[in-house]
Structure formats: C-alpha cells, structure tokens
C-alpha cells in the first residue's frame, strides 16, 4: 500500500469533521472520495495534505508516518478547486515554480522540466501567456502540470473540475484519466459529482457524516450498495419491500415493461430524454421509475397497463 489512513479523526464539533477513518490506497490507483457537502471528504484530503492537524490516528505513506510533517515536507501535491495559480507569472513560470523549490533545481533546469509537463498537458505554445488570459480548461491543465512536475508520490485533487462548464468537464475528465493511466500516478480525487466518481475511479470511498460507509469499485457501489443511503445517493433508484418485508433496490434501467390488458402496473407519466424514455408506473401504493433505451421503447403511452420484468435487484 502506498497510503494508509489509520483511525484518522478530526472533529471541529460533534457534527462536523471525520471520525475513525480507515483507508488503504494502492500505488497507481485512482481513488475518489464521494459524498454530499459536509460529509468530511475535503477534511480527509486536507489531513492527507497536511493542511489540517489530526486529533488522533495516523497517516502512513510507503510505510512511514507523515502525520507530523508540514505540507511542504510531504511528498504530495495538491490541485485545488481554485487552481491556486500565480496571476503575476506566465504559464511556464507557474509550472517551474514548484520544480525549483520542491526539487531544489536551478531556474534553467526547472524550466526545462516544466516544458516537458506543459507538452504532456497539451499547452505547448502558451508558455509565455499570463494565466489570467487562459480559459478555465487551460488553467486546469496548468495546475495539473505544476503538480505533476514535482513528481509527487501522491496527487490530491480537490474538486478540480467544478468550475468548468458541463461540456468541458467531460473532456477534462477523459484527459485526467488518460494522464493518470499513462504515468501510473496515484490520485485521490474529491467530488460530490456521482458521474465523475463513477467514470474516473478504480475505487470509490463513499462518506456520510464524517464516516466511511462503503469502499468498492464503481460497479459494486452502483449495483450493490450496502445500504439505502448509498443506493439513494448514487444514481436513481427504486426502493421497495419484497414479499418477505425486506427492502430491495432496483435501478430504473433494470426493469423491462410489456403491454398487457390485464397488467398489474399502469403508466402514470412518460418523459422523453433523448437516449432513453423515462416512465413512472404504479400499482396500488407502489411507484417505480423505469428507463428504457431505444426508439421502440418510447411507444408506450400514459394509461397503458403493463407487466414488469426485473433484471437485477439487491437487498439493502
């Protein structure tokens, strides 16, 4: 394991902070810490980076505790939500700054190293541009290049895509994952965006009220959540009771419907979403959301009676 969090605790008051967080991260993994505002994800990242002092527990990097090291002594680098670039410096000066001081390199050599990473993130030709004149996506690339150029053991990312518009976020997501895989960088990524977490991560750490609730692959988090909180928080879900009174979770895309004059369910609403059609169907006091893909599946109408086929369900 490259990083281990052991019973890590930081409480600001009884309702804010994290408590007894345990997490093992492998080298080269892309780990996402996911949860709503106030769940403790940014606190966890700041503890790893050394920007907060833990109340108790330990942070172990490659077998050595870094708990009492200041941020500048930890072989880590952070990409902040605001990017934290220097507005009075041009692009290459921003990237080479960290190289000069973290790796103790002379200015000329630092700029040579910086140029390598500027090329990697696709910003060749912008070296002399002031960062304030760059687009949001370009600034994000500068922040990535600056962090990567220091050759950290671990790269921490605090919602770095949240300031970008929707289309650019998707593009930068793809670029970030490509860089991570290409250079086998261990990344810890914090977000409240479920789609980002599912598309980027090797594993997802779901947090709630300062505690780790589930750590698993995106597929298992989505299809096999361990409780109702995770099932409801990540993606759309139908949560009902089976004949034994147990709660089960069924994703809308895991239900098929078929017309039947004597069907037990009736279509209550219909919404065309482009790639799929969203239906709401009812039976007595049960209401289910159903997502059907393809043109033909949009042919059902409000009021139609249907039967259902459940393709996958999980007990919670």
CATH topology of the largest domain: Rossmann fold
- The percent range for helix content is 25-40%
- Basic shape: globular
**What kind of sheet is the major sheet?**
6 strands, mixed
Q: At CATH's second level, what is the architecture of the largest domain?
A: 3-Layer(aba) Sandwich
Text of the CATH class of the largest domain: Alpha Beta
| Estimated structural class | alpha+beta
C-alpha-based Rg, rounded:
24 Å
Order of helices and strands: EEEHEEEHHHEHEHEEHHEEEEEEEE
Count every beta strand, where a strand is a DSSP E run of 2 or more residues: 18
What is the chains' assembly state? single chain
Give the full name of the CATH homologous superfamily of the largest domain. P-loop containing nucleotide triphosphate hydrolases
Show unreliable segments.
Answer: none
Which strands sit side by side, in order, in the main sheet? 6-7-8-3-9-10
User: How many domains comprise the coordinates?
Assistant: 2
């Amino acid at each position: 394991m490259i990083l281990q969090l052991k019973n890590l605790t930081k409480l600001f008051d009884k309702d804010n902070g994290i408590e007894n967080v345990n997490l093992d991260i492998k080298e080269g993994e892309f780990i996402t810490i996911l949860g709503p505002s106030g769940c403790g994800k940014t606190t966890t990242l700041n503890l790893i980076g050394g920007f907060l002092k833990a109340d108790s527990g330990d942070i172990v990097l490659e077998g050595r505790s870094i708990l009492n090291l200041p941020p500048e002594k930890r072989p880590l680098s952070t990409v902040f939500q605001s990017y934290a670039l220097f507005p009075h410096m041009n692009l290459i000066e921003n990237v080479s700054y960290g190289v000069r001081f973290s790796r103790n390199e002379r200015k000329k050599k630092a700029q040579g190293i910086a140029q390598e990473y500027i090329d990697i993130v696709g910003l060749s030709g912008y070296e002399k541009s002031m960062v304030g004149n760059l687009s949001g996506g370009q600034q994000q690339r500068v922040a990535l290049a600056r962090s990567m150029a220091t050759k950290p053991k671990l790269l921490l990312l605090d919602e770095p895509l949240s300031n970008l518009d929707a289309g650019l976020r998707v593009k930068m997501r793809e670029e970030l994952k490509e860089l991570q895989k290409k250079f086998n960088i261990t990344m810890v990524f914090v977000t409240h965006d479920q789609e980002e977490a599912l598309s980027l991560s090797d594993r997802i750490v779901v947090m709630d009220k300062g505690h780790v609730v589930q750590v698993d692959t995106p597929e298992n988090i989505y299809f096999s959540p361990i409780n109702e909180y995770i099932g409801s928080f990540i993606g759309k879900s139908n949560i009902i009771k089976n004949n034994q009174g147990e709660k089960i979770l069924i994703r809308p895309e895991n239900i098929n419907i078929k017309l039947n004059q004597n069907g037990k369910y009736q279509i209550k609403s219909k919404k065309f979403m482009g790639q799929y059609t969203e239906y709401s169907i009812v039976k007595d006091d049960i209401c289910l959301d159903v997502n059907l893909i393809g043109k033909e599946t949009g042919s059902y109408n409000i009021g139609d009676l249907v039967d259902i086929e459940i393709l996958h369900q999980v007990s919670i």
